[in-house]
Structures are given as structure tokens and as C-alpha cells.
């Protein structure tokens, strides 16, 4: 029986599965085939919710006497973009000058391939793992994240599963392996402002109220002053206007409404509730002191709608987990990783409610880009780090 000890071969198999979210694309079947010979019991639940696509997920457990470590990740990938711009076909797993090309190479099929190889090498060498290891893999991380990791955790918990720690194999390193461990993430919340004006002819502004003027006033109130100056563990919270839409093709018509979408990445100064209250207060104050026109007395009329489900900020303070991973990285690479909370959200936001969680994977410089690729040498290095971590953490 051939065991999946080669991370490059594992990754090539996964890349050749076109698992653009939410399609399974054969990736979970390929992963199940790798895990079964290693003694993992594999289940593949499908979750559904109205208005979202059904998503297939994978949960695999190799049971042992001792603590329980979870490795989490996703096999779904973002679209390839302009396929003609790729140097090599995006699902070919072509190797050129020591690098493997393909969508998902670093985000994050590469991390999964390396973790599987690390476990497989221990099995092949007859080295025991002093506890249980599970893989919690979703097909919904790059999508709406509704039928993926959150529901998979609830499903597994209802079956009696409990974990002592988790590592997420996202590409956390900015330049080289060993740069960075993610020990937390900022929260994320999105909203839409709609300003209601009065449509009219541009030549007769006294008969209309231009919502674009009001929207500018409200947007400025969101952007200034800064939400905070940052904290010991997190960079400053940041609000970005992501879209302004009036939908008016006519140059001689004052529109009736204007909208602006925004997203906030926030630190532990805030909770979703306190941040929403701050945004409401800013908009209310600005609407009362602002006017559609200098000669008008009416305050700016607006609606504020919160989108999606906010992601809460979190910070992992598990010394055993962080030190075991840091020491594994130092032993293999000679580098001392920085501990960071930078970047966007990840599925760690769901896992932190069940056990301590950190993130460490490949170098992320090409993730989501045309010609996403990974150095074959990095696959070997990451496999060695994961293997050493299995020793250090279970010890």
C-alpha cells in the first residue's frame, strides 16, 4: 500500500480537482483516499441553508490515547480569473523551476497536503502519535462560510467530539516560512448606508434634494476621527468605504437615492454591538448637522443596514500551543516566528469557540493571484514543521 508521504504528490492530486467554491470538485474524495490508509475514520456531511448552495465537508479522526489535536482547513478555492493569463493551466499542477503552479497551491491545499504527509511519514516509520488527530475540512471557506466550518463544528460537537487545540493551515507567512504565526484575528463587520433625497432636474436644484451631497457628509463622519489607535495585540481598527452607488445614467437628473457600502476590521477595543452603536451615533450626529444644500433646513435622511454576520475579534493565549509550534518552526528553519493578529478573517473565528487555535501554513504571496504557486522546497519544510509539531505538542 502506498502511503501519502510526499507532500508534492498530495498537492498535485488536490490541485487537479477543480474545487472552485462551493463545488467539491473531487478534492474531498481525493483527501479521503489519502486518509483512509492512515487509519482515519472519514465522514462527509453536507450542510444546507436557504439562499445558499449546499456544501460538502469532511471530518476525519485517527483516535489514540491522549489529547486531541485538530487540523483545520479548506479545499475550496477562488475562481481562476483569466485562465489565458496563467503561465500553466490553473488545475494542471505543473512544475516549473522548482515551483508547482495551480489554484489552491498555497491557499490552502498546500497546507493540507503537508499535514497529511507529516502524519503519513509517522505511520510509515512506525512512530506513534500520543493522542488523537482529526482533520476538519470545509468546502465553504472562500464562499459565504455558512454551510462550512461553523456547522461542521456543531455537527461534530453533537456527536461528542472535543478538541484540546487546533492549527489552521492557512498561508500565514508573508515572505518565507517561519515568518509568522497567527494567534488571533480582528473582527469584521459590514454595513450599507442609503441616503434618501428628492429627484429633480439639475437646472432646478431648489426643487430637489441631492442625496450625493448627504452621502458625502455621512461618509466623512465614518472615516474621521479614527476609531482607535490600536491595542497591545492588535493594529488600529479600520473602516473602508467599499462601494458608492447612485445608479443614475442621466447627467441632467438629480437622483432620488445614493448608497455606500463599508467594512470595518476592528480590534479588541470593540465588540460588534459597541461598534454598531458607535457607527449609529456618528451617522445620527452628522445627519442632524448636515444638509442637502446650505439653504435647506431638513436633516439628511438615511437608513443603515448591517450585512451578513459579524465576525468577532479573538486572541489565543494558550502558551503550550504557541510555544510548541514556535519551537517546531525554530528547530526546522532557524527562525523565530512573529506572533501576529494581522490580515483578514479565517475559519479560526469559528474554532476559537471550541478550543485554542493558531494558524500556520505556507508563504501567501501568490494566493488568489494568477499563477498561484508554491516552492517544492517549502512543501518539504512545512511537512517537517508539522511533523516536529506533532512531537512537541503531544509531548
What does this structure look like?
The chain contains 9 helices and 21 strands. A 6-stranded mixed β-sheet has the order 1-4-8-5-9-20, with helices on both faces. A 4-stranded antiparallel β-sheet has the order 14-16-12-17, with helices on one face. Strands 6-7-21 form a 3-stranded antiparallel β-sheet. It is of the alpha+beta class and 395 residues long. It is elongated.
Task: Kindly provide the radius of gyration, computed on alpha-carbon positions and rounded to a whole number of angstroms.
Answer: 24 Å
The N- and C-terminal alpha carbons lie at a distance of 29 Å
Strand content: 25-35%
**What are the segments in which pLDDT stays under 50 over at least 5 consecutive residues?**
none
Task: Report the order of strands and helices.
Answer: HHEEEEEEEHEHEEEEEHEEEHEEHEHEEH
Mean pLDDT level: 96
Q: Total strand count, please?
A: 21
From the spread of the alpha carbons, the general shape counts as elongated
DSSP helix count? 9
Q: Helix proportion of residues, in percent? A: 25-40%
Instruction: Indicate the structural class.
Output: alpha+beta
What is the strand arrangement across the widest sheet? 1-4-8-5-9-20
